[in-house]
Write a structure and sequence with these properties.
464 residues, Chitinase A, domain 3, four-stranded antiparallel beta sheet, disordered N terminus
């Protein structure tokens, strides 16, 4: 898939793990994270304590409901405020923080709802929205973190908890993705980080912390209820050893996750000092792509797969020169039709047709199709898991089997591989990211204040 599509997905996955829609604000005796509350659905099933979701954008008024505020072309209902307050309380209590006063909590929730409505209005007027493939991929990532391998199964699970819950959840995630993308776009255009800024940071003492060793890895976990139960631990360990043997034999992580009802998934880049000691010890001894021996953790028996290591000492990266052809699935082309298309292309390739010619003629990835399907050099972690797994298993110069990702059906070819020293680029990228993160919160607040000042807001009532 095009790098831009994958970057959207990678960003979506990250923000779902660590969503912070607005800044933090101290209220009374406790620190209230200024984000909207959980839906009843997410409290019950989806959201651990470190994950926050806003209330759904669309709420149907009941006979006892009433308008709290008019915000440009939209309204805020009392039911929305009640729902958001309930969710905020759940989050604060989950973090074992003191609850602020009812008045303070209500005021902050209404303020955040107003800002959310303003931003959704900007998005609606622009007509820009993340596409269905990116949305589906983001939701699938959440499902996989819950040990569910398909969107259909995830939908059934959510709708069983709350009627029509999946539709609400899907809209919620769409709004979250759009708001975060809007914020990133608007703030990025306001922040300017120069080469001189980067040089100054790299020569400062603060750079040592930013450049600590980082690991990119996957977790494959056999979950257990009680890690003090010797029988349960022994059974989980035996299962983990079976899984490890199959992983080393080449079986896909996705199929094993489903077969054994495993949990885990892609963890992204994490600093060594933020990881448990057993994780650091296991990952430090692994080469990229290798699996650790199973070991016991609080939640289960874990196997780790290294997807890379980097830091101030060096960032040697194994890269793959890849080209691919995509048969995209969307509202016009269903999965079955896309599969027929990619199978026909695969047959032509096997009959001797040139890969570049077929990519230019038939690939639905416009970013690479014009270049004969060429994605240039790709590192692990750049692509979604399904694409990366196929890439890692495909020998140089051979076609992969047809495989499916959240974007549709693919065929890929790895034309060559290399080990590239990315240390200097990595150091400068880390410096830019660190400076950007430092400046982002203040600039975000400035922008939010500006759009709030220019919006039409009519407060109609207060919550009883």
């Amino acid at each position: 898939m095009a790098k831009t599509l994958n970057q959207d997905l990678h960003y979506a996955s990250g923000l779902i793990k660590n969503q912070t829609f607005f800044s933090k604000k101290n209220l009374c005796t406790g620190a209230l994270t200024s984000v909207l509350g959980l839906t009843a659905l997410s409290i019950v099933f989806l959201v651990p304590a470190n994950q926050v979701y806003a209330a759904p954008a669309s709420t149907v008024a009941t006979p006892l409901d009433y308008v709290v505020a008019v915000v440009d072309d939209s309204i805020i209902l009392a039911s929305e405020v009640d729902q958001a307050i309930h969710g905020a309380k759940q989050q604060i209590q989950a973090r074992k923080q003191a609850l602020p006063s009812e008045n303070a909590l209500q005021a902050d929730v209404i303020r955040q709802l107003i800002l959310r409505k303003i931003q959704l209005g900007i998005i609606a007027r622009s007509g820009a929205s993340v596409d269905d493939n990116t949305l589906n991929a983001a939701i699938l990532s959440i499902a996989q973190q819950q040990g569910i391998s398909s969107l259909d199964a995830f939908q059934n699970k959510i709708d069983a908890i709350k009627p029509n819950g999946y539709t609400e959840f899907r809209q919620q995630i769409l709004d979250d993705l759009n708001i975060n993308r809007l914020q990133q776009q608007r703030i990025a255009s306001r922040l300017k980080i120069t080469d001189k800024d980067v040089d100054n940071f790299l020569s400062s003492p603060q750079s040592a912390d930013a450049l600590k060793t980082e690991f990119n890895f996957n977790i494959i976990q056999v979950p257990i209820e009680d890690n003090a139960n010797a029988i349960e631990v022994a059974k989980a360990t035996a299962t983990a050893n079976e899984v490890l043997n199959q992983l080393r034999a080449g079986k896909s992580i996705e199929s094993l996750m489903t077969q054994y009802k495993l949990k885990g998934g892609e963890q992204g880049w994490q600093k060594s000092d933020e990881l448990p000691t057993p994780f650091v010890e296991a990952l430090s001894s692994l080469k990229q792509g290798e699996f650790s021996k199973p070991f016991l953790t609080v939640k289960g028996v874990d196997i780790l797969q290294s997807a890379g290591m980097r830091g101030a000492a060096g960032a040697m990266v194994h890269q793959y020169h890849v080209r691919h052809i995509l048969a995209k699935t969307n509202e016009v082309t269903n999965v079955a039709d896309a599969k027929l298309k990619i199978d026909d292309i695969y047959t032509k390739l096997k009959s001797g047709a040139l890969f570049s010619d077929l990519a230019k003629a038939y690939s639905d990835d416009p970013g690479s199709a014009q270049n004969g399907g060429d994605l240039s050099w790709v590192s692990t972690g750049d692509m979604v898991p399904a694409f990366e797994n196929a890439m890692l298993k495909t020998p140089v110069g051979q076609l992969s089997p047809v495989f499916q990702s959240p974007y549709g059906w693919h065929i890929l070819e790895v034309t060559e591989t290399r080990d590239k020293d990315m240390t200097e680029q990595y150091r400068r990228d880390v410096a830019k990211q660190t400076l950007y993160k430092r400046q982002y919160p203040a600039e975000l607040q400035n922008w939010l204040s500006e759009i709030r000042a220019t919006a039409y807001v009519d407060m109609r009532g207060t919550i009883q």
